[in-house]
Amino acid sequence: MFDIFKQLIMSSGAVSLTGGNLIMWLVAFVLLYLAVKKQYEPLLLLPIAFGILVVNLPLTFLMEPEHGLIWFFYHYGIENDIIPPLIFLGLGAMIDFGPLIANPKTLLLGAGAQVGLYVTFFAAILFGFDLREAASIAIIGGADGPTTIYLTSKLAPQLLGATAVSAYAYMALVPIIQPPIMKLLTTDHERKIVMSKLRPVSRLQKICFPIISAMTIMLLVPASAPLISMLMLGNLFKESGVVERLTKASSNELMNIVTIFLGLSVGATMTASTFLSPKVLFIFFLGLFAFIISTASGLLMAKFMNLFLKNKINPLIGAAGVSAVPMAARCVHKVGSEANRRNYLLMHAMGPNVAGVIGTVVAAAILLKNLG
Amino acid sequence: MHSMTDWSKVLEVFGSGIVGVYLVMILLQLLTQLSTRIIDLVEKGNKTGAAAPKPPGNDVEVKA
Predict the structure, then answer these.
(1) At residue A4, does pLDDT exceed 60?
(2) Is the pLDDT reported for residue A314 higher than 90?
(3) How many domains does chain A contain in total?
(4) What is the pLDDT of residue A233?
(5) A-chain residues near B16 (CB < 8 A)
(6) What is the least distance, in Å, from the CA of A248 to any CA of chain B?
(7) What string of H, E and C letters represents the secondary structure of B2-45?
(8) Which of A205, A216, A367 lies closest to B28 in CB terms?
(9) Best residue in B1, B3, B27, B41 to probe A by mutation, most A CBs within 10 Å?
(10) Mean pLDDT of B16-43
(11) pLDDT tens-digit profile of A319-334?
(12) Range of A216's domain?
């Protein structure tokens, strides 16, 4: 009887537990707390946290190549570039490009925010990361989870867990990170600028935009095709108004299903051996740096544009050039209305916000072309 | 982490990245402005055509 009991204990995962596993459990519990209690990006952080927890239970072999259940999700979903483009399909079906079409100048703000990404690339090199790792860290500044995962899985898969968690964590912290930078880089007078109402955009214009954008961007940067094609297809579904079932399926059912596999797979890459290294601390630090510089460069771009514009724009909307849709736009609106109660910046900020999504994909594709 | 860094490659990625992103976004801006202007004109034309009164006498009314 004792022998059977002893055998059971010896064959269990408990005896193979390491200190690293225990620390990773702690990381998982912290993320679970943030997701459940604080509701920080719960749709992603919850499956990521659970993925971390189960993959750090010894002898489960969930990430064992060719055998583990989650390995199959990871291999076919992320390594084979299926999941991030599908997330973009759903995103496209939810995004309204109307504010961007009404004020196309805001595309430049989406580009402005990407400068921060390249500054971080430079900084990561100075910290000793190699070029491919530096690019994967820099893309966190784009504040776009699927793009971060897409690029990192191609350039530095060993950093996937850290960059993805960092990107989603900072996206959730937009209302805390961005306002101090906005206030620091703008004057009270600038924050009070009231922008005139956006012109109405017709249905035909909304239908043409995804077609023109897809053709233009993919012709210029073919490496962006997987993400841009899906983003614009999803948007065409929505704006055409004739495939309501597909729009709903893309933005609800499909999006929800792939989110489960995305979160679980990303979490499962965070084993103690890959995650517990000084590199990860640097990644979190550089991710925050990227986010701050991207916000600042978007704001400065808006101020620069104001030097030439007759109808001044409120420079706060430049901060929405980092993607984080629609959180960054909401944050801009909040700071703007604090300065001037008559200020209604939400729709104006949605322009640079969705331009940021396009800009981040273009930046990622250029990095991929240069370093892939 | 690496100790050997190819700085010429770093500068190439840095420069081409920033220039590339701006180039794509500026072109997209111009094309968006152009297409919306064309669509505005077409839609305006269609509206004017639809709203204009029909010239008298051209209608052939058939009554059963």
Answers:
(1) yes
(2) yes
(3) 1
(4) 98
(5) 366, 370
(6) 27
(7) CCCCCHHHHHHHHHHHHHHHHHHHHHHHHHHHHHHHHHHHHHHH
(8) A216
(9) B1
(10) 95
(11) 999 988 889 999 999 9
(12) 19-371
Nearest CA to A16 out of A71, A68, A61, A47 is that of A61
pLDDT at residue A335, as a whole number? 96
Q: Is-contact A331 A175, C-beta < 8 A?
A: yes
Q: How far is A369 from chain B (nearest CA, A)?
A: 10
Has residue A144 been placed in a domain? yes
Question: Which pLDDT does position B58 carry in this prediction?
Answer: 53
Is A6 among the domain residues?
A: no
A24, A272 in Cβ contact below 8 A? yes
| Complex confidence, ipTM | 0.89
Contacts of B22 in chain A (CB under 8 A): 108, 111
Which alpha helices (H) appear in A73-200, and where do they start and end? 83-94, 98-102, 106-112, 115-126, 131-138, 145-155, 160-172, 174-185, 188-191
- Residue A10 included in any domain: no
| Structural domain contains residue A7 | no
Query: In angstroms, what separates the C-alpha of B43 from chain A's closest C-alpha?
Result: 9
Q: Per residue in A359-371, pLDDT tens? A: 999 999 999 999 9
**B47 CA: distance to closest CA in chain A (Å):** 13
Residue of A108, A202, A355 with shortest CB distance to B39 = A202
Question: Looking at residues A202-206, what average pLDDT do you find?
Answer: 96
Which pLDDT score is estimated for B64?
43
User: How high is the pLDDT of residue A171?
Assistant: 87
- Rounded-to-integer distance, Cα A360 and Cα A178, Å: 18
A211 touches chain B (CB under 8 A): no
Tokens of A277: 């290294």
Chain A positions touching B25 (Cβ under 8 A) are: 107-108, 110-111, 355, 358-359, 362
B38 CB near a chain A CB, below 8 Å?
no
Report, as an integer, the average pLDDT of A44-52.
94
